[in-house]
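ok so i was messing around last nite and threw this chain in just to see what happens. nothing serious, just curious
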Amino acid sequence: MPRWIFHADLDAFYASVEQRDNPELRGKPVIVGGPPEARAVVTTASYEARPFGVHSAMPMSRALRLCPGAIRISPRFDRYGEVSQDVMRVFRSVTDAVEPLSLDEAFLDVSSRVSSEQEAEALARDIKAQVNSATGLTASIGAGSNKTVAKIASDMQKPDGLVVVPPGGEAAFLAPLPVRTLGGVGPRAEEVLVAGGLKTIGDLAAADEQTAHSLLGSRGLLLVAMARGIDDRAVETGHERKSVGAETTFPRDRSDGPELREELRRLAAGVAERLSAKALRARTIVIKLRYSNFRTITRRSTRADPTDAPEGILAQAEQLLAGALSEGDRFRLIGVHAANLVTEERVQLPLWAD
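result:
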């Protein structure tokens, strides 16, 4: 019996939530992200803004030049989290095997409920209807025998799309697509593959293992298997959060001084608040610094006793910052991250604690 994996992805999620919550924004180009003077980037653009060339991760200043009539909205992550919980409840009402990838997308293993292409389509339509009923939003779903196929299929007919790839049709579905479509092929890998004559996923699927290895090493062998529609990865339901963090990009480059230190304090407090809200503590504190020339470094330290206290996080962050500073340094960005996380119930108390 073949596996059936769904990849469900909410359409322009953040922008769609804003349009849903504020009817005056419906039908208008909406761009979610920070202000251009803060060197912010686009988090999400509504489908009305996309014909102008606006897309995620684009500098906000450029997005607003391309679409001068756009309405910029600062992100409301707490609100998006609330809506995400409603969406995930729908998914988990269908199957226990749900792997959230972000607030607005997840893999679902529905093998226990689906045995044919027709049943897969019917169940996907039912999930889409439930999501719309619960949230007023639309979702696109890709269905196939594995994660690779499902993920690519979900993006084929957005928004409000549904693409079902029947078992045995994986390679034919993938073959005509640009090699860049394949998960794990970034700009640099695409450049290498195209230079080697492998422009489509079908080209990559037809390549021998020696060629793939010579181009991309061991990763090339994995990509060839994926291009052939082979992907045995399971839907993982037990992911633990690996880190909690916050970053700020400055409107103007800053050197060390009161403003930089105050921002570090604010970030540490924010990280501490998020840890406490999730009943987590951190053993490792990381700072991230991006210099005026765009060079980026990270520095980290690990403590014996995990903490969620703002003063403890700040003290470590300040030590790390002091160790990274040189005279004349100017920074575009600073960040504080907590890693090596443990839940509160797993924290071992000192032997002689009061």
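not much to say yet. The chain has a mean pLDDT of 91.
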